[in-house]
Amino acid sequence: MAGKRTDVRPIIKLRSTAGTGYTYVTRKNRRNTPDRLTMRKFDPVARRHVEFREER
């Protein structure tokens, strides 16, 4: 049973664009950011900061 919590703030995966397959798991507010999220975060496999994109 999906509650009110998962409606507005779903759990999303952020996948590295460096091609290492590393992911971060976070939540986002669907009302504020309806499009796909991109963030620059540290990829420990590539050992540098790279762009992470939202994956559904």
The beta-strand count equals 4
The total tally of domains equals: 1
The CATH topology is given as Rubrerythrin, domain 2
Overall residue-averaged pLDDT value:
92
Q: Can you identify the CATH class?
A: Mainly Beta
Secondary-structure class: mainly beta
CATH superfamily: Ribosomal protein L33
Q: Supply the CATH architecture.
A: Single Sheet
Range of strand content: 35-45%
The largest sheet, given as strand count, sense and whether it forms a barrel, is: 4 strands, antiparallel
Q: What topology, given as strand order, has the largest sheet?
A: 2-1-4-3
Determine the fraction of residues in helical runs and give it as a percent range: under 10%
Q: Regions with pLDDT < 50 over 5+ consecutive residues?
A: none
Tell me the radius of gyration: 13 Å
Order of helices and strands: HEEEE
List the total number of helices: 1
Task: Describe the structure in brief.
The protein has one helix at about 5-10, and strands at about 10-15, 25, 40-45, 50-55.
SSE arrangement:
Layout: H1 4-8, E1 11-16, E2 23-27, E3 38-43, E4 48-55
Overview of the molecule:
It is a single chain. By secondary structure, this protein is mainly beta. It has one domain: Single Sheet (Rubrerythrin, domain 2). It has one helix at 4-8, and strands spanning 11-16, 23-27, 38-43, 48-55. The chain has a four-stranded antiparallel β-sheet with strand order 2-1-4-3, with no helix packed on it. The chain is elongated, with a radius of gyration of 13 Å.
